[in-house]
Amino acid sequence: MVPLNWYIALSAAVFCIGVAGVLSRRNIIIIFLSIELILNSVNILLVAYSHFLNSMRGQVFVFFIMAVAAAEAAIGLAIIIALYRNKETVLTDEINLMKW
Amino acid sequence: MLLQTGFIYFATVIVVCALMVITRKNPVHSVLFMLPLFFHVAGIFIMLNAEFVAAVQVLVYAGAIMVLFLFVVMLLNIQKERVRPRVGLKWTFTAPLGLTLFGFLVAILVRSQYNGTQGSFTIEAVKQIGNSQAIGQVLYTDFLFPFEVASVILLVAMVGAIVLAKKRLD
To answer: Could you give the CA distance from residue B36 to residue B54 in angstroms, rounded to a whole number?
Structure first.
């Protein structure tokens, strides 16, 4: 039997790696991947609690998170394509049109 | 003992792949490192008796979202990151920040109480009716309205992606 604390530690580790990726990288695609990492860490935690509380609600919430993640990936990548068409870059520090 | 070993294997692969994702220079490598990560997260779900979620994880994440990412990465011709520094903030700043956040999260979550009311879906009860039926019983009764809202979100995403990514036809 794996204790709940191990799952908490794994989820926290993946979450923090995602946060560090969002903060430090300049490529907007990697930033999106880091957001997917963060969502996955939350999924792990939800399923773990759902298992240890004998409840199905955590797993149902994972489905909603997956739906939102899919929608976010589709919209985000469309924005990236539109951005690349206009600015010829995917690096966040070169997208400074609104910074005056 | 077997379960612990399996967990340590899955967790190690997940963390190493996550670190590779945020440190690789080439975005294609980052996206490809995401794939084993998703499969091992599915393995963690199977260890937690959530087979249906694991299957959906592989189908949706590894099957759909990763293909979308790969398409976009290969559609855009990105060579600039090779010559210029690839991080905005310095690793010397963000790595200690991430480690501190990790310490905080573990300290808080491990000490927090999780002995709330136990639900009725014990392992034996779920074994009787099957994991997907147990999820369906909750999803289509208690969560019927959120389920419908999720379908609207997906519709909005579909329309929005087409509108954003299509070329202007003048």
So the answer is: 13
Task: Determine the topology of domain B1-80 in CATH.
Answer: Four Helix Bundle (Hemerythrin (Met), subunit A) (1.20.120)
Cβ within 8 Å, pair A40-B116: no
- From residue B40, how far is each of A79, A89, B57, B107, B168 by CA, in Å? 29, 33, 10, 25, 41
Arch. (CATH architecture) of A4-87 = Orthogonal Bundle (1.10)
Of B11, B89, B138, the CB nearest to A56: B138
- Round to whole Å and give the CA distance between B12 and B139: 32
- In this structure, are residues A45 and A13 in contact, taking their beta carbons and an 8 Å threshold? no
Q: What is the pLDDT of residues B111-167, one digit of tens each?
A: 876 667 777 778 878 888 888 888 988 899 999 999 999 999 999 999 998 898 887
Of B90, B99, B34, B81, give the one whose Cα is nearest residue A24. Answer: B90
Query: The whole model's pTM is what?
Result: 0.89
Residue B6 pLDDT: 93
* Among candidates A5, A27, A70 on the partner chain, residue whose Cβ is nearest the Cβ of B60: A70
Shortest Cα–Cα distance, B108 to chain A (Å)? 10
Tokens of A14: 């993946």
CA B41 to chain CA centroid, Å, is 8
Annotated domain spans of chain A: 4-87
Q: What is the pLDDT of residue B42?
A: 95
Query: What is the ipTM score, two decimals?
Result: 0.91
Residues B46-56: pLDDT tens digits?
999 899 999 99
